[in-house]
Amino acid sequence: MASDLSRRSFLGRSVALGCSAAASPLVTPVTLASAPWDARLVVIILRGAMDGLDVVQPYGDPAMGGLRKRLPVGEAAGAHDLDGFYALHPALGDLMPLWRAGELGFAHAVSTPYRDKRSHFDGQDLLEAGTGFAPGAPLAREGWLNRMLQVVPGIEAETAFAIGRETMRVLEGPAPVSSWWPEARFELTPQTRRLLEMVSHDDPLFRDALGQAAEISESFDLEAPGEAEEEAMSPAMRAGPGKAHLQVAEFAAGRLRRDTRIAAFSISGWDTHGNQARTLKRPLAQLSETILTLRAGLGGDWRRTAVIAMTEFGRTARENGTGGTDHGTAGAMLLAGGALKGGRVWADWPGLGEGELYQGRDLMPTADVRAYAAAAMQGLFGLDRRVLETAVFPGLDMGGIGRLIL
Amino acid sequence: MRHDPTLAAIRFGTGLGPGLAPPASAAALLAELSGPDRMAARFALPAYDEAIARRQALTGLRRARRDAGAEAERLAAAGAIKALRREARAGYMAGLRANLARAVAAEFGFRERLTQFWADHFTVGRRVSILNEAVSSYVDEAIRPNLAGDFATLLKAAVTHVAMLLYLQQAGSAGPNSRFGRKHPDRGLNENLAREVLELHTLGVEADYSQSDVRQLAELFTGLSFRNGEGFQFRPGFVEPGAETVLGRRYEGGLADIRAVLDDLAHHPATARHLARKLATHFVSDAPDPALVDHIAAAYSSSGGNLSATYAALLEHPSAWAAERRKARQPFDFVAAALRALGVPGAEVAALSPRQTRGLLLAPLALMGQPWQRPDGPDGLPEEAAAWITPQGMAARIQWAMRAPQALTGALPDPRGFVETALGGGASETLVFAAGAAATRAEGIGLVLASPEFQRR
Q1: Is residue A22 part of a domain?
Q2: Using CA atoms, how far apart are residues B324 and B228, in angstroms rounded to an integer?
Q3: How confident is the model at residue B2 (pLDDT cuts 50, 70, 90)?
Q4: Residues 6+ positions from B212 with CB-CB distance below 8 Å
């Protein structure tokens, strides 16, 4: 990512950003000309393998109850009925108004083509690469969001933002992207900054990281005073430790209201091998708060936004011996946003009965999770299906996925 | 091939410092390992058992709080729980300070680098409160004494340590047909440790093993457990009856066979390749020369998995001494090398206050992307330079480089002398110029530390 930026495109961007913000310091700069579209996409990687069967509970499936004793499902266990067959985990209850407004939906029994070894790390790498699933294939260095950006003209570095302390492989690649962590600070005198640029000049990795850090923190300084005050009072600032996800969501919303059109970050903590009834609550609360913070922060842009949250694989259909679940295959994907044609669970439900499980242990995948990501991008950005099936997700078949975006 | 002492100190040690002679040969680096562990003795840490006792006390106090008749009793128990947590947290911070002090004061620091490497290979993160804060004690007991001997010994020590059994949830895993499992049909196997032993600790994910091997190893591991207040316990009642087959070999079960399967995994050719690649990647290059990896793997196999012989192979290969420094120092190593270059005495690092520890070490390390002993998962830290040198990571490193040295040293050295000390006389003309052109001492020091030349190894 950073290392692929040329110095020239970098300086050019600094100037453009400075001008657009400076021209109208008291209003949110809306510079449609600099972004290829008006729609916004937020991609959340749920690291650790979310248990789709507990989050979007198929309580109408007669086999479900028998698989889990310490992990009860359905309305009797406090879950929220969605459509008579599926129920939403109680910890996502705050999202029910979105469901009723058609701003929330789920794809179920989905997975990537990754099979059988059930390694988190390979599973996540492949989920973010979006290609290279053949056994023994080398891992692609580019993420699928970056490949998508490569086919669109007029991309600027701030069009796509990776937010977090860790790298987001889904955005890595030759197309310019930005990355930041909202807690980071960057304060140098102009003289020291010049000297640091000088000593970093011959090392592209350091040079570009330095340049981006300077540019991003400068763009904060240009924010209108009223807005800065408002941000100082934000829930994330008041909430303190343990609420970093709110800072991330607020930062993402802030960027998306300006020139950024794609934001990617992750939420971890889904690897619930033990006492899942307790341990799943925290990441679910974070996911719920993240979506609500995005919705609040995006204001009028929420109606142009789709959020997709995807995980490397699902978990075992049966609970394990320690009140949790082990690594499985198919799971669920969450979609949200004002642009979503939601209020439904998309699934070709495979069943959970005898002979219906994958390898006798996991939910059987009946659709490719990448097809939903592709359909969302098709609807948001008007991308051609052929481009999505060849350049972005080589070899993907999007057939059978209906319209996801209004 | 001529030995380059400066490169040896930067690439394989914890860096250069005033009055510290860099390693005169590869043999000198290895001699640091075969000698006594002076740093562990000088900056000692409490035994893990202390944390186990604290955890037991917590259980008692929680019960007391629950059963308290009077409000005063409840408040007393709640207060004692708070104090226990504070104590544990103080231990966590002392662990960071001791590890840094060792890196700063070590002769060369090869042992310190290997300690961090293997602690990452056998990552333990948060799982059980109080015990979460004692990861440094686990590393001192399971990793540090075993990093120059046979890998099999290191593997067995790390995998069967209570910290690992709890982190990867082995302690509660019971065979479905064990005595315990039959009585408690809702309890059973947990595959977590078995999977990570194969994928991360030994064979590597590219090796030829299957879900059935994972499952069988999980069954074989049943019995490895923990008892509150006592620590490690083998529970025969958890053991899945019957033999297990892992990678085509049959094991009858029980503690002796658990050791046997770990021995067999340690001696597997896939493990040799996996460890060789990891060592070469960590110390030399994110894309290591295949000949270097082969050379290390061959030494590992022919020595029966002896780690000193393995390191010797790494250090004798010409590719390990390529002049271009392609790796980026990880945040802990960056901070340690900076303190060493600044000449901050180890004893002063060890004596930093809790407030200084938080503000000058813990918070900055987290911002740089390495929250101390709080890994994202059992696969530990990324290796690629690009994963660390991000805009946000770079901002955090610059911020620390410009401010922390002032707070950590009585008087900052002259940047013009410092640039020579920190880079062993190998600094570029540009960096020497910049160090002298800075407006203040603090900025001059900060420029040297924030430069790619200092951060590359």
Answers
A1: no
A2: 51
A3: confident
A4: none
pTM for the whole thing? 0.80
Please give the DSSP secondary-structure letter assigned to residue A368. Answer: E
The answer to whether residue A15 sits within a structural domain is no
The closest CB to that of B190, out of A117, A274, A359, belongs to A274
C-alpha distances in Å from residue B184, one per residue of A275, A279, B62, B238, B299: 15, 21, 25, 11, 48
The 10 Å Cβ neighbour count of residue B424 is 18
Count how many domains chain A has.
1
Note the pLDDT of residue A357. 97
Concatenating the DSSP letter of every residue in A307-323 gives: EEEEES--BBSS--TTB
Q: Which residues make Cβ contacts (< 8 Å) with residue A182, sequence separation at least 6? A: A163, A247, A248, A250, A251
CB-CB under 8 Å, A189 with B387: no
Q: State the residue range of the domain holding A141.
A: 31-392
Rounded distance between C-alpha atoms, residue B419 and residue B434, angstroms = 10
Contact B399 A327 (CB under 8 A): no
Tokens linked to B48: 């893990």
DSSP state of B198: I
Check if the interface score ipTM surpasses 0.85: yes
d(CA A389, CA A176): 22
Q: What's chain A's length in residues?
A: 406
- Residue A203 sits in a domain of what CATH number? 3.40.720.10
Give the pLDDT band of residue B135 (cuts 50, 70, 90): very high
A252 lies in some domain: yes
Tokens of A377: 């991008």
Residue A234, pLDDT score: 44
Q: Measured between beta carbons, which residues in chain A are less than 8 angstroms from residue B198?
A: none
DSSP β-ladder status, A104-111 and A160-163: unpaired
Which two three-digit tokens encode residue B385?
């330079």
Q: Which residues lie below 8 Å from residue B375, measured CB to CB, with a gap of 6+?
A: B120, B123, B125, B381
Which one-letter amino acid corresponds to residue A106? Answer: F
CA distance B244 to chain A (A): 18
Q: Which structure tokens are listed for A68? A: 């889990």
Which positions ≥6 away from B35 have C-beta within 8 Å?
none
Q: With an 8 Å Cβ cutoff, are A185 and B395 in contact? A: yes
Check the CA dihedral A349-A350-A354-A359 and report its sign.
negative
Evaluated on CA atoms B439, B440, B443, B448, the torsion sign reads positive
Option in A187, A200, A216 nearest B451 (CB): A200
Closest Cα in chain A to B436: A195
- Rounded to whole angstroms, the Cα distance separating B412 from B415 reads 8
A406 within domain boundaries: no
pLDDT value of position A242? 66
Across the interface, do A121 and B379 touch by the CB < 8 Å criterion? yes
Instruction: Tell me the C-alpha distance between A224 and A232, whole Å.
Output: 12
CA A112 to chain centre: 15
Pairing of strands A262-268, A40-47: parallel
Q: Do A165 and B174 touch (CB under 8 A)?
A: no
**Using one digit for the tens of pLDDT, what is the confidence trace for B139-172?**
999 999 999 999 999 999 999 999 999 999 999 9
Tell me how crowded residue A393 is: count the other CB atoms within 10 A of its CB: 24
Pairing of strands A87-88, A56-57: antiparallel
Query: What's the CA gap between B374 and B418, in Å, rounded?
Result: 33
| Predicted confidence (pLDDT) per residue in A36-70, tens digit | 789 999 999 999 999 999 999 999 999 999 999 89
Q: Which residues in chain A have Cβ-Cβ distances shorter than 8 Å to B192?
A: 273, 326
Q: Which two tokens stand for residue A253?
A: 């919303």
Chain B residues whose beta carbon lies within 8 Å of the beta carbon of residue A173: none
Handedness of CA B192, B197, B200, B201 (dihedral sign): positive
- Cα of A307 to nearest chain B Cα, Å: 23
Radius of gyration of chain A (CA): 21
Closest CB from B186, B376, B396 relative to A184: B396
